[in-house]
Amino acid sequence: MIRYLKIVFVILVGLQGLFYFISNAVNFEYAQGAVGAVLGQADSPAYPNLVIPAIESPALVTVALIVIMAGELLVGLVCFKGAFDMHKAAGAPAEQFNASKKWAVLGCGIAIIVWFGFFQVFGAALLQMWQSQVGIGSFEGAFMYHGASALVLLFLNQRDD
Hints:
With about 160 residues, this protein is mainly α. Helices cover about 75% and strands about 0% of the residues. It is built from 6 helices and no strands. The relative contact order is 0.18.
């Protein structure tokens, strides 16, 4: 039963990535506006002197959004590959099932890179996105997403005997 819970959790992390990718794709202009507001350091009253200058180039904003979306899509695809491999090995001996987790572990790791690395480290710490109305929502959401992904990764990484 534990093996199947792990598979379901990996699918959920994958769906999270896929749903955010789709949401950004169907709301591309709005997503560009949100990323542009963060990169442009709009509305930063608490720390007006930030580490790097505002990035206001529409091309760079678009590139940043595409990198975020590519990361989200990659989370979905890699987690689904991992869940598929784990499902195929669900009834196999422990050694084989543990080996089947490779892609699932990678997918959860990518999720942490996207929502912790991109949003918390670069967005919140470097660009101070927590100061703006637009940025705080993304900052808080990213914490929930990478926290859930990290918990799944820890559970997933436990050996199955």
